[in-house]
Request: fold
Amino acid sequence: MALDFSKNAEEKPEPLKAEVKGNIPSWLQGTLLRNGPGIFSVGETSYEHWFDGMAIMHSFAFKDGEVTHRSRFVRGDTYKANMSANRIVVSEMGTMAYPDPSKNFIFKAITFLNHTVPDFTDNGASNFMKYGNDYYATSETNYILKIDPVTLETQEKVDYMKYLPVNLATSHPHYDKEGNAYNIGTSIAEKGKTKYTLFKVPAASQKGLSDKDKNAPALKNVEVVCTVPCRSLLTPSYYHSFGMTENYFIFIEQPLKLDILRMATAYMRGVSWASCLKFCPEENTLIHLIDRKTGKVVETKYYTGVMIVYHHVNAFEDDGHVVVDVIAYNDNSLYDMFYLSKLKESAAFNDGGYSKPSYRRFALPIHSNKGIAVGEDMVNLKFTTASAVKEKEGKLMCQAEVLCEGLELPRINYDFNGKRQRFVYGNCVEQSALAKQISKFDTESRETVYWNEDNCWPSEPVFIPRPNAESEDDGVVLTSVINFNPGQSDFLLVVDGRTFKEVARANVNTELHKDMHGFFIPQGN
Reply:
């Protein structure tokens, strides 16, 4: 059987105890949150792209070997407006909508004049993140939605623009050991300049705060770390994530761009914002290295060939280099595979039609060596074949080492974020754009082990380290699984991080849904 991507989900907001088979480790205490698109049609209207669907959140609470599941729709302004009108009235990336279908050309003209930079959706269907003590459902716009991680109730809509000028921001922030969060957003034509803004949301401190300040969004204390000028005022690069080491941020300015003028006139022309994405294969990719202490961009310019990156794996420093691991594509065809019309044709289930992901490792020499001649490779690391050839002073052309093919939605033991890690967990999409198995990849031996089961579709795997772990892979991997086997339930799978063997599953008496990303909250956090 195949997944029906256009089927509307049903929420189950009351906690339901799952039937556990096997033994969930007693130390696993906390809640796994997952979200993704869940509503694809409202009244007589339907979304055109799977990413556009209105968000549904799932939680799996672990306590003393038991699992409790619940689900709830994200109730932001997008949800409320669509449901009130009984039709889709808020535009998403791949689906353009109009508040009133009777409006004519004059209305479109007024909309165009009022939307030089469009107002975006608050449909937080991509991920969860923690700012201060608060948890948010998020996509990639300037809106994030505070949620209660226990009940999954939507509590407050927060606009980045009230605290710093970013029209777009990633849903993949990084966190340091102190609990500070770091993220990056795009400031479009702000004071005549388009730039990328790296910012820090400090860890929460309740000492000496009034009740009003205690309840204020953590973004109230946001700090701009640095800004990076965009290569083009009206065509900033699209990006989904970035990298961070102990001393550096890594930002990839890739040749997949947002055409701002086209986006501003999208209403007028009756096209979706996705049609305003511009793939520029004639341009190289520029990798920016940013010093975390000074907030300044390293003077050396690191270029590589055309590639599209959605997910960074990790980055670390070694002997004067920053090593950057990413999942990369040769073009932007992956997005097109998730148009619902193509999913209904099962185009994403076979081996053709889209660029396959590859796990690529770059090595960026930090310090310029004027003694090295033009044409020479400046990488001297023994464990990688990645190169960085000097084209001229201050400009290096980098070539990645391909570690493996077909891995996506990569997750690591986050305790090793910014350090040299060995293991990567992910979805195996070597044969199709939709994963039917999860995998554990060893970056040293280059070996891969898998978990799969007939007629089962697992989500992104999330690694949870065991307290006082003895090794990097000492822990468990959690993934929600859609099960099409007759008479069987969907389930939450628990896999041993070292052996990659199943240790338990929690069967839920409800339907799960194909989702995006997950976030684990340890008990007490």
User: Anything to note?
Assistant: The longest strand covers residues 308-318. Confidence is low (pLDDT under 50) at residues 104-116. The longest helix spans residues 105-114. The radius of gyration is 23 Å.
